[in-house]
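Q: Could you predict the 3D structure of Sugar phosphate isomerase/epimerase?
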Amino acid sequence: MPAFITGARGHDFGRHSPADLLSAIGQAGFACTQLAYTKAVEGVKSYADVTPALVAATKEAAAQTGVQIAVYGTYVELSYVDEDRRKAEVAKVLSQIGNAKILGARCMGSETTPMAKQPGVSRKDAQEALLRSLSEILPACEEAGVLFGIECVYHHAMNTPEATKMVLDTIASPNLRIICDLANYIGAENAALDAQRRIWDKVGSWYGDKICAVHFKGVAFKPDGSHYSTSLEDSVIDYAGGFAMLRQLPQASLPVLREEAVPARAASDIAFMEQFYK
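A: Sure. Here are the predicted structure tokens for Sugar phosphate isomerase/epimerase:
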């Protein structure tokens, strides 16, 4: 069973200097974070603003606070079918591999592009674009010894366990990993407990050993099927079943990152999350 390490997404704490950001995360009771410079650090508008001095300051802050960089967040659109746009997004990732390595991040991470960002594009075409992007990113990650995690999301290009398995099998890189957000597998039509349990079975048996991080948030559904964020206590997600699967995995440890964290609620959120670890 992995040792689960409770953390939080950095940009839920607002924009700060690396020292102030990691200090706030640690003081809230979290041991690790998902750091996205363009969303969480003051003065960073693009990856061009991520300087060697900033990375060095972040590394020092992590050492001083003891807050580990679990995921180096690169929020990019890997499934654009327009080749110029797609290649520009890939270039962002390639520019950050060295920084992820310097920071000792457990993995880099990205989602795979909402389908709504490309009206009229089929999911098949979006997934083919994703495969092209990953085929350009993973060789550089392998050379640097950096893991790259992608996240299955219900309304994105990679949206089901089946699609995730296809991507893993096609790319077949030892450095490709999966970020597992239980809530992001679920829509209104598969929110019933038995349907969720079938999804966890697929995730665990097909690629559970490839999971590099876990996201944790609350979700429920309106009568029209649209989803909305909730407290963890009010969520419809089957955390018990999801963690029953995660506890069977061979990883020595796994970060579990609270998304949409409210610092004032950190203590109750941590208690809620950690009840599922054993």
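Q: Anything worth pointing out?
A: Strands lie at 3-9, 32-35, 68-73, 107-110, 148-151, 176-181, 211-216, 218-221, 227-230, 253-258.
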